[in-house]
Amino acid sequence: MASLQLQAVAAVLALVAAGAGAAHGFEFHEATVEAIQLGFSNGTLTSTALVRFYLDQIGRLNPLLRAVIEVNPDALRQAQHADAERRRGSGTATGSLRGVPVLLKDNIATRDALNTTAGSLALLGSVVKRDAGVAARLRRAGALVLGKASLSEWANFRPVEAGWSARGGQARNPYVLSSTPCGSSAGSGVAAAANMAAVTLGTETDGSILCPSSFNSVVGIKPTLGLTSRAGVVPITPLQDTVGPMCRTVSDAVHVLDAIVGYDTQDAAATGAASKYIPHGGYTQFLKKNGLKGKRIGVPNGFFQGYDQTQLNTYKQHLATMRKLGAVVIEKLDVAANLTALLVEIYSEGIAMQAEFKLSINAYLADLVYSPVHSLADIIAFNNNHPVEERLKDFGQPDLIAAQSTNGIGPVERAAIRRLKELNTNGLEKLMMEHQLDAIVAPNSDISSLLAISGHPGIVVPAGYDEKGFPFGICFGGLQGYEPRLIEMAYSFEQATKVRRPPMFKP
Ligand SMILES: *[C@@H]1O[C@H](CO)[C@@H](O)[C@H](O)[C@H]1NC(C)=O
Ligand SMILES: *[C@@H]1O[C@H](CO)[C@@H](O)[C@H](O)[C@H]1NC(C)=O
Ligand SMILES: *[C@@H]1O[C@H](CO)[C@@H](O)[C@H](O)[C@H]1NC(C)=O
After folding, report:
1. Which domain does 245 fall in, by range?
2. Catalytic residue among 96, 126, 165, 184, which?
3. Is 358 one of the catalytic residues?
4. How far is the CA of 374 from the centre of ligand 2 (A)?
5. Pocket around ligand 2 at a 6 A CB cut-off
6. Which pTM was predicted?
7. CA distances from 51 to 57, 73, 137, 144, 240 (A)
8. In Å, how far are 154, 230, 432 from 266, measured between CA atoms?
9. Residue 52 forms part of a structural domain
10. Given the CA of residue 31, which atom of ligand 1 is nearest to it?
11. Keywords on this record (predicted)?
């Protein structure tokens, strides 16, 4: 879109964003999960009013932001049902997501009127056997599925402009419309930032929650591998895929995390192994204002580079704030003897990923009740037959083709997986153990690969805006099962800094 047009649209949107919702007793803009529950119980809010508000926001903003691929045609009816249950005091759901509208990334399956396509035209019309494990948990918690969020199609497997998919088009950053919202969970981040849903879910293989959360000024939790079920999620690799919340506050993200963690027979090995990490009483107990006190935080060398001075100064201030709140911040740590070499080597993750992708996407497709495509080979053929819609001239499909040429997990893949294990043992794990760290911190999603290769968790929190108003974040990363302390640190940091402000739709 031409920049003059963008400017005009931006001016209108800024007015709309400031005015809407103010006439009601309940303040819809920036509403938190806790405010929503309070509104339900004091009678100023219904799920119907909430769904109407978000549908309205989607109707108004989506032509520009393209964060939502599909709206659930049953959303209002389900909201009315939730309201009726609340009035009668019936219904089985308890907890903080009851009656709350949730937007799901379009690679998370739902067995309802919504399609599940991972942004690809090839999967349009496919029918799943059941809700994804996380979607089923959300429904049991009483949450309302509002629709599906757009994403970068096939995530890492197409070198696409961040946020682009054949079905969703190009998602836009609501802060600076001409800037990238990052990917692959672009729509989830944009929708959360622009108040197009109460809360959203994204998925991460390497950076796909942490990056769009950073660039859209929302909180993203990338959980420990297996803490949340991957069953029914269009896969990239079971060695790294994980599902997590993307929300406007740490507290909201933690409420969502509580609802989606747990064992799932359909993803038994990973969820079984990680269930030991789930704390009795859930995660909200770690929303502690003094959560930074006594924490040991490492700042690895090499990541705070290539940022401009304003941004670096902001990060410096944040480290000072952490110290002031009682954390021990240890700077200039070497995560490995040679970080550049490490980061280059990590890309042997691609070797394992290609083979794992072929196996797991074929397994996903085989489990569908109906699908226009039945294998990775079919998807490649579909793309070749739809070169315009899939923009083959711009993007090609080299990664899909490379994945197709693999033949299971052989000696090469096993060696790559072993190498990744070593990188983790001698890199992040060694560093964290040696210095007895509770977390490392780094800008945006810069440590996503360190976390990805061994299923470690990370939480991104808004950290600032550059001179153009473009957001950046700070990531607290830890070892498997460190969610409780990461939540303590992230919440304490958020409450002390209160960086997030609603998007301004600048051109
Ligand atoms: C009801 O709760 C909302 C917070 O969700 C608050 O803004 C509002 O003032 C409350 N109204 C009454 C009448 O208690
Ligand atoms: C799902 O896709 C079909 C096309 O196959 C379309 O007709 C339908 O409207 C889509 N569902 C929703 C909820 O958008
Ligand atoms: C680190 O590794 C990279 C890539 O292998 C190499 O080019 C560079 O010279 C190494 N640096 C040091 C200080 O050893």
Report:
1. 2-286
2. 184
3. no
4. 20
5. 70, 73, 113-115, 124-125
6. 0.95
7. 10, 11, 20, 9, 33
8. 22, 8, 33
9. yes
10. 5
11. Signal
